[in-house]
Amino acid sequence: MNTRIFGVELADELRGIVREPAALFFSVLMPVGFFALFVSLFGKFSAGGISAGTTMIATFGAFGVISVVLMNPGIGVASDRERGWLRAKRVSAVPIGVTLAAKVVAALPYAAGVLVSMTAVAAVTGSLSAPAPVLLRILFVLMLGALPFALLSLAIGFQVGAGAAAAVLNAILIPSAVVSGLWMPLEIMPAFFRDIARFLPTYHLSELARAQLTGGAVLSHVLALLGFAIIAAVLAAVSYRHARS
Questions:
Q1: In whole angstroms, how large is the CA radius of gyration of the chain?
Q2: Burial annotation 27-56 (CB, 10 A radius, 16+ → b, else e)
């Protein structure tokens, strides 16, 4: 029964993302557009035998996936709250957990679409130099590692309205992407950016994806993302209780 209900909720959420033009633009179209611009300019440069375009699949890919899972659940929850969604769910036969899970899962196909689009752009521009198994590992790591950001998104969606949610989420996303080196390598940015980046989950997700290309260490990045997931889950639970009160 719950599986069937989840399927109905999921289908509705998949359509709902398309109906949210702000979320669709900022979380899907903007990351792919930025990637296309940067990869056309710098994609064919090489470092350590890996083309910049391939490295950008990990770094810009992290930005793209985070954009989707950070923007969409939160804006959707905030919009539903303004329409009386929480009150309706209290008397609905659909468990609230099923609806929230559908909101999170619905973002994943769009996130995968962003990564596939970026990979296609890199291939078309001749700057893709990684085999398919490595690219699939990057996709898996980014999709799984981005899920804690969905919890943070829900926490914010339970606190503010739809318009404010988009502003708050973008205020989190854009600065953290810049400081974490998701757009430009940290090596060419001010030194204090590198000091700040180590405390940001965006940086750790990007580095975890890059490790699939370079064979670098992953444990510290995994632990950092697990810690962030716990904090985001607590914030989401507290925010939900606050929204119900």
A1: 18
A2: bbebbbebbbebbeebbeeeeeebbbbbbb
Q: Which pLDDT tens digit goes with each residue over 189-243?
A: 888 899 999 999 999 999 999 999 988 899 999 999 999 999 999 999 999 888 7
CB 98 within 8 A of CB 9: yes
**In whole angstroms, what is the distance from residue 22 CA to residue 163 CA?**
9
| 3-class DSSP assignment, residue 49 | coil
Based on DSSP, count helices (H) and strands (E) in the chain, helices before strands.
12, 2
Tokens, residue 230: 């716990």
Copy the structure tokens of residue 36. 């296309």
Interatomic CA distance for residues 154 and 76, integer angstroms? 9
Domain map (residue ranges) of the chain: 2-244
Amino acid at 130: A
- Which tokens hold the place of 56? 């950008």
Amino acid identity for residue 238 in this structure = V
Residue 188: count of CB within 10 angstroms of its CB = 8
DSSP 8-state symbol, 94 = S
Whose tokens are 């179209």? That residue is: 29
Of 13-27, 64-78, 206-220, least confident by mean pLDDT is 13-27
Tell me how far apart the alpha carbons of residues 237 and 85 are, in angstroms, rounded to a whole number: 17
Alpha-carbon gap, residue 70 to 72, rounded angstroms: 6
Beta strands at 46-47 and 50-51: parallel, antiparallel or unpaired = antiparallel
Please provide the size of the chain in residues. 245
| Structure-block tokens of residue 66 | 């985070």
